[in-house]
From TrEMBL:
Keyword tags: Cell membrane, Membrane, Transmembrane, Transmembrane helix, Transport
Principal subcellular localization: membrane
InterPro entries: ABC_transporter_permease, MetI-like, MetI-like_sf
Origin species: Paenibacillus roseopurpureus
TM region positions: 26-53, 91-113, 125-145, 174-200, 221-245, 282-302
Pfam families in the cross-refs: BPD_transp_1 (PF00528)
GO BP term (any one): transmembrane transport
SUPFAM superfamilies to which the protein is assigned, alphabetical: MetI-like
Name by which UniProt lists this protein: Sugar ABC transporter permease
ABC transmembrane type-1 domain ranges (all copies): 88-301
Membrane topology field: Multi-pass membrane protein
Compartment(s): Cell membrane
Gene Ontology annotations for the cellular component aspect, listed alphabetically: plasma membrane
Family to which the UniProt record says this protein belongs: Belongs to the binding-protein-dependent transport system permease family.
Length: 309
């Protein structure tokens, strides 16, 4: 009688594999897949392939079958390449002048425009227009200004008594100087706007308290304005520094790296070796040299800034 009352146990319910959590996980990856595939194809693969090519010899017109592994020969060749030495030297000169001078002039202009100056909105627009204009158009304008005989700049120098004014872009001693002047002028509006944004965030109460304590304008600038612009200065320094090593368009349009390679830089050497001489392996090796230089300088800058903060 007792045995007849015992009911058989129900079989355990098997859980479905595709539960809600797993479905959300898959749907999330499906949404990320296009971005992930694009990143792999457009960013990761070119970087890895470029690193491989830097250890190879590859004539671009010979197809993929002409890739030959040669070890570190490309990097050894760079040590003996005088054009690379000249490009590296020009890059350093370009950076040493455009970064500090550009930031200094932009800071002075920003303080001037940010103060109670009549028509400061006009100055903001006037200085910012070159930054949003085509760099090729700016180069064409400056090419006319720097014309050796008919240019307004040399005409002015002749009028004030300079007998042999420089030929600027056509002179191996002044071609890089001319490009530095154009680069500083073209980017000064962008830096000025960033500085004005930083100046707007400084509370007026600090200046009012400094005025009550009898601090001069110079003391206020060095003890209030400059320290509180530290993050802005750091941002502009790093971005300008990285940008200075990537200069290409102005040089390609105005001088083509000449005369006599006097204005060539690393990026222009990459272009010449890769797309004119079709030496893609050597061009990749120069690219990694440039990457190493920019990476080390940027890392040092970040370390110094973090230590200062």
């Amino acid at each position: 009688m007792v045995q007849s009352q015992i009911q058989p146990l129900a079989a355990p319910v098997k859980k479905a594999y595709w539960n809600h959590k797993r479905k959300e996980f898959v749907v999330g990856w499906l949404f990320l897949a296009p971005e992930f595939v694009g990143l792999m194809i457009l960013s990761v693969f070119p970087i890895v392939f470029s690193l491989y090519l830097s250890f190879c010899e590859w004539n671009l017109v010979g197809g993929l079958s002409s890739i030959h592994f040669i070890g570190i020969d490309n990097f050894v060749a760079m040590l003996e390449d005088e054009k690379i030495h000249m490009a590296l030297k020009n890059n350093l000169i370009f950076t040493l002048f455009t970064v500090p001078i550009g930031i200094f002039l932009a800071l002075i202009l920003a303080v001037f425009v940010h103060s109670k100056v009549y028509g400061k909105e006009y100055f903001k627009v006037a200085f910012f227009i070159p930054y949003i204009s085509s760099i090729i158009a700016l180069g064409a304008v400056w090419s006319a200004l720097f014309h050796p005989s008919q240019g307004p700049i040399n005409q002015f120098l002749l009028r004030v008594g300079v007998e042999n004014p420089p030929k600027w872009l056509a002179d191996s001693h002044y071609s890089l100087v001319a490009i530095i002047i154009i680069a500083i002028w073209a980017a000064i509006g962008y830096k000025m706007i960033i500085f004005i944004a930083g100046l707007s965030n400084i509370p007026d109460e600090l200046y009012e308290a400094a005025n009550i304590d009898g601090a001069s304008q110079t003391q206020q600038f060095f003890n209030i304005t400059l320290p509180l612009l530290g993050p802005t200065l750091s941002f502009l320094f790093i971005t300008t520094l990285m940008g200075s090593f990537k200069v290409f368009d102005l040089i390609s349009f105005l001088t083509g790296g000449g005369p006599n390679d006097s204005s060539t830089v690393l990026v222009y050497r990459i272009y010449e070796e890769g797309f004119r001489n079709f030496r893609m392996g050597y061009a990749s090796a120069i690219s990694w040299l440039l990457f190493l230089i920019v990476g080390v300088i940027t890392m040092i800058s970040w370390k110094l800034q973090n230590k200062k903060n």
